[in-house]
Here is the input.
Amino acid sequence: GKLGRYPPWPGKIVNPPKDLKKPRGKKCFFVKFFGTEDHAWIKVEQLKPYHPHKEEMIKINKGKRFQQAVDAVEEFLRKTKGKDQASSHNSNEEKNRRNSSEERGKQSAGEEKRKASLSEGKLKKGTGEGKKRVSSLSSERGSKSPLKRAQDQSPRKRGRPPKDEKDLTIPESSTVKRVMTGTVAGFKWPPSVRANEHCPSPECFVFCVQPAVCYQAITKKLKVCEEETGSTSIQAADSTAVNGSITPTDKKIGFLGLGLMGSGIVSNLLKMGHTVTVWNRTAEKCDLFIQEGARLGRTPAEVVSTCDITFACVSDPKAAKDLVLGPSGVLQGIRPGKCYVDMSTVDADTVTELAQVIVSRGGRFLEAPVSGNQQLSNDGMLVILAAGDRGLYEDCSSCFQAMGKTSFFLGEVGNAAKMMLIVNMVQGSFMATIAEGLTLAQVTGQSQQTLLDILNQGQLASIFLDQKCQNILQGNFKPDFYLKYIQKDLRLAIALGDSVNHPTPMAAAANEVYKRAKALDQSDNDMSAVYRAYIH
Here is the structure.
């Protein structure tokens, strides 16, 4: 699990590894999350007791993984309870044995005392010297009875335990119960818990409101900033938004298209507790999401008709039009009040046409193409560019928070398509330049690795630069962003420039290189495979 973006998750406070240092600052506990292999330092104020909040969290998080995690907690509690009962039974038996032994000791001591008294009485009849000896002996015995001597020989006297042992004391269950009854933000750990601050109790289970808060805090606040263009940026995409977690919309969500981007988006929608119905042209891709709690739609029309908001993410303008206008398409399911959000990267003309037909049937339309790649989609860190129905944009808030780190509202339909093409034009041209530089280094006898090291120390340093160079150096072109799609975006961006008589010579040159890479059968590889156009 990726702790920074998951919903509240059941965990257990445990002892950290000896070589793992505790973060400085606010009080933290080391938490193991059930149903995963994840561990993290969690701030006290981000923990909630398990039992009082269990039902509330189950209602919010309906995913299969979350339920499996709750089942794991319950199973652990059952096993722990069984061990406690067995331990209690053994403790009672030991106590009974000790009581019996003490009783026998008392009886033995009484018998010895009685014999000593009789012996002392007989000796009183003897001589004065004998009388003194006996009195001396009797006095010595009287000062220390057998029971008293046994106590003196004990390695420890009754009273306070040694200091080092006191520090290891685990709070009794009553203390734990007091801790567990209130919300964590409102209580202070009792002294006994602080003394053993790594592990208050094996019974202390928690819901982590904001996982992984003690690593690098990601605090994305909800902010709205009006730009000169009239566009609006809403940055509230992390699961920490506003109240520490995403509250999923109660609207039914549909999703059409489970490609590289769509798969990650749907996965995050489900993780954050949304109710999702999925459809894909190749139905087998739906199976994994059905197992995670999604519902299956037989056609796009069925998904739209049964859901409140339907998202779509497909490859190109033709696929986007076919999805809406084709047989059993989106348009057949549209009726007044139904909402359609197209996340595909297409040209402004295409998205405008789709908006018109959706609205003509009484539907609401929003375009929302995304900037990112497969990894960012999986991580829920996409950048969302939206335009169209502003009210629908706000209705999609929890969905955008689940799938992205930032979303921008850019005004009327078509603006988001234009902006997305410009962003991808810059990215595609940059990728072609990186490949050109690496091949030039190679043919002039320079180290490609050294070139990367130099770039990573300069102003061009970025995750994108490093990842794509590593792909080339390792010969690994597994798709994170298909080469054929970046070439499509370059082509559409050049056409956008032509429509307003604006020159795009850099994009045009890069486009030719990608076209050559496609001719070399690199279409279904990552965009970094454009490198191969230079070495063939």
